[in-house]
Amino acid sequence: MSPHEKHVLVAFGANLPFGGMQPESTILAAAAALNGGALGDLRLSRLYRTPCFPAGAGPDYVNAAAVLTLRHQIVTSEILARLHEIEARFGRERLRRWGGRTLDIDLLAVGDTVAPDLAGFRHWHDLPPEAQAQETPDRLILPHPRMQDRAFVLVPLADVAPDWQHPVLGRSVAEMLADLPQAARAEVVALDASLDSGANL
User: How many Cβ atoms sit within 10 Å of the Cβ of residue 85?
Assistant: First the structure.
């Protein structure tokens, strides 16, 4: 990776149709909209079906993950704004936390950036589960403070970035995935019609 390149990790999720498109098609269209644009080139995982989180909150999700290689130095706020722009294009409405959605794009990591700082990251990383459903950060936390807990993030992410190392936890994606219970990993099932692992759009 050149000094001017930085890898951004993103996660896609959808469980509601939009404009006649099923979630699988929405994710592929959103990934295509990101690929080769102002930000850079995108490498997408396979698509996976996963149980709705939290359980019983709606239809099963389709999930994917991607590595975006930035072409230029771009501030994190611009990356996030672009992700939100694409979410809105595909009907995303932020009505309630962890509610059903036509498209969700989570910014998981930007290189080895820790934001807003180590103390801020640790606060949200260490938040008890019961508080997670009630409290929402008022700023971007990087890396995503829950990514290491979620098989629906780590399974697809392992397709495209198994060796990425968490700058605080010191664990690779593959290691964080192996740390999860087998039952949690088994719930994330690849779709037969999805792209081959690590496909370039």
Answer: 12
Pick from 148, 182, 183, 187: nearest CA to 167 = 148
* Cβ atoms of 63 and 152 closer than 8 Å: yes
pLDDT of 26 > 60? The answer is: yes
Give me the phi and psi of 92, to 5 degrees please.
-65, 130
Checking 95-100 for CB contacts under 8 A at 24+ apart, the result is 97/133, 97/136, 98/53, 98/54, 98/57, 98/133, 99/57, 99/58, 100/15, 100/16, 100/52, 100/57, 100/58, 100/59
For 196, which DSSP code? P
Q: Name the amino acid, one letter, at 89.
A: R
Question: What pLDDT does 151 receive?
Answer: 96
pLDDT, tens digit, 9 for 90 and up, residues 48-70: 999 886 677 778 999 999 999 99
Q: Are 42 and 34 in contact (CB under 8 A)?
A: yes
- CATH for 7-191 is 3.30.70.560
Quote helix, strand, coil % in the chain, to nearest 5: 30, 20, 45
Q: Which amino acid is at 194?
A: S
User: What DSSP string describes 29-46?
Assistant: HHHHHHBTSSSEEEEE--
Question: What's the CA gap between 22 and 36, in Å, rounded?
Answer: 24
Paired tokens of 159: 């397709």
